[in-house]
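New to this. Please check this fold:
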Amino acid sequence: MAENLNIKVTYMSLSDIQSLYLQFLTNFPVSLRPLISIGLAVLIVYSIFKVIKKDWIFLIALIILLPASQPILQSVWQGIVVFIKFLLNTK
């Protein structure tokens, strides 16, 4: 039965997310866009904090048990920082 399902999985790239974000911002006046960007950045940081707070023991275990995960976590962190900078720098 499962082989009859034709499910297409599509992945969004960062440029797709950025274009959706810019389309979202066009619905608001230019004077409100920085406030909306800051609000979204705060919500993203808060969501990440809640996930880390909830699963902190697994994050510690990941860092201690898998030393190779440090570069991966650094690249994830850099991606988050770039995305937040993008949110704050749009005009």
